[in-house]
Amino acid sequence: MTTETNIDPILKKLATVNPYLLGADMIRRRLLWDLNPKSWRSRRHLKSIQNTRVGAKTIIICNGPSLLKTDFQSLKEVDTFGLNKINLLFDKTDFRPSRIVAVNDLPLQQNADFFNDTTIPLLLDSSATDYIRSRPNVTFLHSWHGARFAKDCSISIPQGNTVTYVALELAFHMGYSDVALVGCDHYFKSQGPANMRVESGAKDESHFDPNYFAGGAKWDLPDLPASDFYYAMAQRYYAAYGRRIINATVGGHLDIFPRMHLNQWLEE
Q1: For the segment 50-109, what is each residue's pLDDT rounded down to a tens digit?
Q2: 64 with 187: CB under 8 angstroms?
Q3: Which residue of 59, 84, 123, 135 is surrounded by the most CB atoms within 10 Å?
Q4: Domain boundaries, the chain
Q5: Using 50, 70 and 90 to split pLDDT, how confident is the model at 29?
């Protein structure tokens, strides 16, 4: 079994090259994950799906209130990425996403019962291995800090301040050439310092479901300028490889990506 005690000698060896690496939490977590058998299966799976969808379209389904204005029947026509607590939508429609991505610790913990029960393919942060069962439909992602875009997600993947950015990286990794966002309002009624962990009120007005973060549930306030930075980075990478990201959200405040009506995009 891998423990932090096993890792310490490796960190000390690294420190002879660069003393600033000694005790670095990021390096420690990366090494622990590298030695975890669950990482081997996840990385094999990520490699197996790399560039398997070259030239195809996909939709990333975000969690803003405008999502309820989306024609869910039309989403059945194309591959989709659901995010975080997208399952709260399931009592409103028979639509189901092709896969679900979640990387923030709070949605992962709060939604653990669903994640442990569903057969929908899941791509989850490796921090969830303690409470999300490892099984064939679950792939764990190793998160890495840094301002970059991961074209290959099989080793590590920057979170970019928003799970939507992670989905954009995964879509690129799988080879999708044309990505549309829906429900990406890029605006939150709850205000406060970026990334501050807060307790929710009785009702959530910042997501598509009033119970998304509600009744005292904890959540992290967004950092919209940081999200803008990473969205712009994703836009540059997609464009550099002849690929495209468009915003098919009904309304909202995200203007980094060109806008297009979802039906028009689907018919192209």
Answers
A1: 999 999 999 999 999 999 999 999 999 899 999 999 999 999 999 999 999 999 999 999
A2: yes
A3: 59
A4: 1-35, 51-267
A5: low
Between the alpha carbon of residue 77 and those of residues 71, 146, 258, the distances in Å are: 11, 35, 22
DSSP strands (E only) in the chain: 57-61, 79-83, 99-102, 122-125, 138-141, 178-182, 197-199, 218-220, 244-247
- For residue 147, give both structure tokens: 């301002």
Annotate 21-59 with b (16+ C-beta within 10 A) or e (fewer): beeeeebbbbbbbbebeebebbbebbeebbeebeeebbb
Query: Which pLDDT value is given to residue 196?
Result: 84
Extract the tokens encoding 167: 């989905």
pTM (2 d.p.): 0.87
Q: What residues does 101 pair with on adjacent strands?
A: 83, 123
